[in-house]
């Protein structure tokens, strides 16, 4: 083909393509509603907002656990420490059985006794280990817990100054590994059972000592806690 003829075809093809592009633009303009550009942008934005998936609010679990306890178990959580004005807490089956709101927490060692079969609270009491000689009464309280009992113990403020050896022996006999390591204002939490054995995987005890080099509260240990699920008695 001659060069002049090739050039002519290219020009005709360009003209045809331009006409097709113009006609396509004309049709598109006729089909799209005549709305302001801002309205179109708002429509696109609102469509994007509708596509955002919102996660459902997590369901609150017993004693503020992250996950729910399995069926036929008791939920528990024990807290101690966290500064001068932070009171110890014992939660059992989503009920605060020792704490500031219940008005039955005090300086020393706080103890709650729960009937393992029914889940009912038998007794709660605190024993001041700084301002009084209460090791004897506390030992009698522990030894008086009936068989098939759950015992929960937490310190508030100081639980060691006047804690005598007999009281330590009574708590150690229930399985405590840390009672003899208690120091001034140590945070300590302990769960045990009387008359039966808890499963091996149950979180039972934790301790934290006052250490100005490590703890954020001057002279007061940081908060510690344990939580878990105790299997109910098989029926």
Walk me through the structure:
The protein has 235 residues and is of the alpha+beta class. It folds into two domains: 3-51; 62-231. The chain is 26% helix and 25% strand. The chain has helices at 3-31, 37-51, 135-143, 165-172, and strands spanning 73-80, 89-92, 95-98, 108-115, 121-127, 149-156, 187-194, 205-208, 224-231. The strands form two sheets. It has a five-stranded antiparallel beta sheet, covered by helices on one side. The protein has a four-stranded antiparallel beta sheet with strand order 3-2-1-9, with no helix packed on it. Helix 3 runs parallel beside helix 4 (165-172). The mean pLDDT is 86. Belongs to the FAM3 family. Residues 1-21 form the signal peptide. InterPro entries: FAM3, ILEI/PANDER_dom. Keywords: Disulfide bond, Lectin, Secreted, Signal.
């Amino acid at each position: 083909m001659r060069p002049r003829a090739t050039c002519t075809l290219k020009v005709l093809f360009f003209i045809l393509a331009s006409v097709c592009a113009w006609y396509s633009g004309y049709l598109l303009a006729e089909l799209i509603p005549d709305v302001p550009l801002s309205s179109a942008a708002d429509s696109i934005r609102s469509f994007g907002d509708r596509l955002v998936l919102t996660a459902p609010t997590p369901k609150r679990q017993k004693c503020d656990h992250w996950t729910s306890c399995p069926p036929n178990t008791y939920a528990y959580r024990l807290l101690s420490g966290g500064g001068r004005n932070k009171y110890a807490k014992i939660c059992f089956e989503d009920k605060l059985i020792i704490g500031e709101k219940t008005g039955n927490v005090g300086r020393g060692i706080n103890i709650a006794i729960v009937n393992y079969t029914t889940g009912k609270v038998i007794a709660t009491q605190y024993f001041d280990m700084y301002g009084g000689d209460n090791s004897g009464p506390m030992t009698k309280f522990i030894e008086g817990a009936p068989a098939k009992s759950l015992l929960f113990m937490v310190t508030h403020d100081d639980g060691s100054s006047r804690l005598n050896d007999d009281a330590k022996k009574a708590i150690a006999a229930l399985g405590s590994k840390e009672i003899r390591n208690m120091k001034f204002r140590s945070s300590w939490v302990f769960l045990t059972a009387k008359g039966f054995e808890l499963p091996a995987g149950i979180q039972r005890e934790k301790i934290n000592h006052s250490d100005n080099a490590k703890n954020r509260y001057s002279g007061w240990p940081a908060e510690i806690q344990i939580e878990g699920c105790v299997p109910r008695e098989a029926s």
